[in-house]
């Protein structure tokens, strides 16, 4: 899996770039797409590919290391650490997104059932 290209970094999303990287790696690990021992691309590779400041990528990697998601070995790439997450832990990672979605739907006066149908339709569509 080519993670450099896999990262979907959007400078206009309102979410800090380092947070986007962090959350995407968390999701990839939780879903099993990244396994313990898998290497992350270098800070320079990610920064160059996405035209962002290397310090931004470094901050994301440092936060991942601090929370035990990855491990750093001198002179080697960062690697995903071993560890399993429960379904509840994985759901917790999207809790803030769900809250923002529900808030936006209420602000737009979208009925709950309409929102549920829209989400169901997205879930049945092609996976991205």
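^ structure tokens above, recovered residues below v
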């Amino acid at each position: 899996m080519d993670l450099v290209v896999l990262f979907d970094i959007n400078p206009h999303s309102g979410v800090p770039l380092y947070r986007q990287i962090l959350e995407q790696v968390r999701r990839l690990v939780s879903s099993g797409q990244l396994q313990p021992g898998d290497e992350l691309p270098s800070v320079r590779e990610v920064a160059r590919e996405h035209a962002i400041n290397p310090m931004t990528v470094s901050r994301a990697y440092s936060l991942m290391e601090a929370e035990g998601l990855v491990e750093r070995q001198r002179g080697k790439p960062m690697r995903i650490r071993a560890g399993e997450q429960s379904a509840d832990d994985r759901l917790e990672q999207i809790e803030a997104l769900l809250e923002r979605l529900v808030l936006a739907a209420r602000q737009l006066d979208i009925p709950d059932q309409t929102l549920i149908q829209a989400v169901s339709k997205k879930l049945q569509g092609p996976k991205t």
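The CA atoms of residues 60 and 66 lie 10 Å apart.
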